[in-house]
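Customer escalation, tier 2.

The customer says the design service returned an amino acid string that "doesn't look like it belongs to this structure." They asked us to rerun it and document both sides in this ticket. The original structure tokens are below, unchanged.
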């Protein structure tokens, strides 16, 4: 295939020549790769940094290897040739037979650089083979949509009438009757699941009033109206999701997210969890969706700074003590905890979790919840769970006055205990624990607090530089230092006209040093604790935010909105207050 390796164009050069990335972005990505991530491909790092999309990277890789790149559609796929390759082979290697002309089979592959795969395909099919490159997501989508048992075209995601582009007030009640009025609730429920997965939604909200059922998707933390059918559909849809999770008539609204099912949607594993609560106009239902790729993200892909990530790994490597992940709701805490567990060795270690509900099944991890244990309260389960002799214990959504002291004692026993605490910052998380755990055990057990927020990332498809108002530029310079280029998304079909596509974390790590431990033992107040943490001079969440702004990953406005009211204020604000106070002292009486 193609030319010798030494003459093959380099990925970074190709992407730069195509104006996908700038030379500065390429230099930054290479620095990240050299700084402790040598085992990761440059393309992966460019996608993680938000500089290039999967399609842009794979298209360049395909060019380098002399392979055509294609965006697959059902019209390109002949289902009759699917049997040319074993199903297990197709799933294992993420390939898709497209069509056959005489004795030549054309196959889509997601790794055009795998020069041995073509020989394996030819051997498995018993035919001459030519390949085209396509993204893994595109291949799995076509595998799902062109499968032999897909008998009802109206259920396919790409059916024209079934599409739900993310835009406000898409379907009014009159439109609903004419387009979907004859559909049973079960079919509408399947459509909503498929569209939610395709739209990267984390939840579906069904909110009935007297006349209209408002259906919204939560995408990148924000809610978008996608459909407004008549309110009479609310009960039928709630029942359909109950049936989908296999618990129709068994779960009570008080049980929360305890009804779940695992589905395969567009070739992706998705776990759905449904909860309903009776309201004045009918059942209000929330369906949460957890995708395999989201629940099993490596820590490196959460957005952590390289140095912070190394320090966090050092805390975990100690193998004992209490490590806290803190932040408000919808800030990605469970994802971070799951990613942390994925770094551990479940063969060597006995890793157990106690969760308010099991959001996603992690291979090799022993997961428990009140629902799985047949108990109403987490404190009733923890003593029995400790009899399982866990080396690592993760507590998610169950920390209360009864569980917290036991968690600290478990950490003092030589186990690593990971806990989630809803808090504004590290000092707030410690103060909340101190209200439930005696000072000495807490100070001795606590190793560190990882504080985080989620910000939306600027859409790569419509990202553009812009010149902000002078007042904003001045404030940004004071807070984050100089920013060479400001970027924002114009809004396009890919991002639903929002200008943002995806989310990334902002992080701050607070190790518990001797000074902070002494303050915990002394029962220091919240503000004193914040002052001690800031005086230690460790990188703050504001510094992380500034780095992501300068890299063009997120926008200034998004960061200011998410971090508004963050305890302690922006660094620039504090400096400005100090300068004002000094100036006041120098004024004549």
């Amino acid at each position: 295939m193609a030319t010798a390796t030494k003459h093959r164009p380099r990925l970074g050069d190709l992407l730069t020549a195509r104006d996908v990335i700038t030379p500065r972005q390429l230099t930054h990505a290479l620095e990240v790769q050299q700084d402790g991530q040598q085992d990761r491909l440059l393309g992966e790092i460019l996608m993680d940094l938000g500089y290039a999309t999967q399609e842009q990277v794979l298209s360049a890789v395909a060019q380098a290897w002399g392979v055509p790149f294609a965006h697959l559609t059902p019209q390109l796929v002949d289902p009759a040739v699917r049997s040319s390759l074993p199903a297990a082979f197709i799933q294992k290697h993420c390939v898709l037979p497209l069509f056959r002309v005489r004795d030549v089979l054309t196959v889509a592959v997601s790794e055009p650089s795998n020069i041995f795969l073509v020989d394996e395909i030819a051997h498995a099919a018993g035919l001459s083979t030519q390949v085209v490159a396509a993204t893994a997501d595109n291949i799995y989508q076509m595998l799902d949509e062109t499968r032999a048992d897909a008998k009802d075209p109206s259920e396919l995601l790409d059916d024209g009438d079934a599409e739900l582009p993310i835009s406000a007030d898409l379907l009014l009640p009159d439109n609903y009757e004419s387009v979907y009025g004859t559909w049973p609730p079960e079919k509408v429920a399947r459509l909503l699941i498929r569209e939610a997965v395709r739209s990267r939604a984390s939840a579906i909200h069904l909110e009935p009033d007297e006349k209209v059922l408002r259906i919204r998707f939560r995408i990148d933390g924000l809610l978008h109206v996608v459909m407004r059918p008549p309110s009479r559909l609310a009960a039928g849809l709630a029942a359909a999701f109950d049936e989908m999770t296999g618990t129709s008539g068994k779960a009570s609204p008080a049980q929360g997210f305890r009804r779940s099912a695992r589905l395969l949607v567009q070739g992706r594993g998705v776990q759905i969890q449904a909860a309903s609560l009776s309201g004045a106009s009918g059942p209000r239902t929330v369906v949460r969706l957890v995708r395999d790729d989201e629940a099993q993200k490596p820590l490196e892909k959460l957005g952590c700074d390289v140095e912070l990530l190394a320090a966090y790994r050092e805390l975990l490597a100690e193998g004992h003590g209490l490590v806290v992940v803190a932040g408000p709701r919808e800030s990605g805490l469970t994802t971070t905890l799951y990613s942390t567990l994925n770094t551990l060795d479940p063969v060597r270690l006995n890793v157990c979790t106690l969760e308010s509900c099991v959001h996603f099944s992690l291979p090799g991890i022993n997961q428990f919840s009140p629902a799985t244990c047949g108990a109403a309260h987490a404190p009733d389960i923890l003593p029995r769970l400790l009899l399982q002799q866990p080396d690592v214990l993760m507590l998610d959504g169950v920390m209360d006055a009864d569980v917290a002291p036991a968690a600290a004692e478990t950490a003092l026993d030589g186990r690593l205990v990971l806990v989630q605490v809803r808090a504004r910052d590290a000092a707030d998380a410690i103060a909340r624990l101190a209200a439930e755990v005696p000072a000495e055990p807490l100070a001795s057990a606590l190793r560190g607090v990882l504080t985080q927020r989620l910000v939306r990332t600027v859409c790569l498809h419509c990202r553009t530089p812009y010149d902000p108002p002078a007042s904003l530029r001045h404030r940004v310079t004071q807070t984050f230092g100089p920013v060479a280029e400001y970027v924002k998304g114009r809004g396009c079909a890919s991002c639903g006209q929002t200008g943002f596509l995806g989310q990334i974390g902002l992080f701050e790590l607070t190790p518990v040093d001797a000074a902070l431990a002494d303050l915990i033992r002394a029962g220091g107040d919240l503000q004193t604790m914040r002052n001690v943490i800031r005086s230690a001079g460790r990188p703050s969440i504001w510094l992380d935010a500034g780095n992501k702004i300068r890299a063009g990953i997120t926008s200034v406005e998004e960061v200011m909105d998410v971090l508004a009211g963050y305890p302690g204020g922006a660094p620039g604000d504090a400096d400005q207050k100090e300068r004002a106070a000094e100036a006041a002292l120098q004024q004549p009486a």
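Tier 2 assessment: The sequence is consistent with the input. The chain has a mean pLDDT of 82. The two ends are 83 Å apart (CA to CA). Sent an explanation to the customer and offered a walkthrough call.
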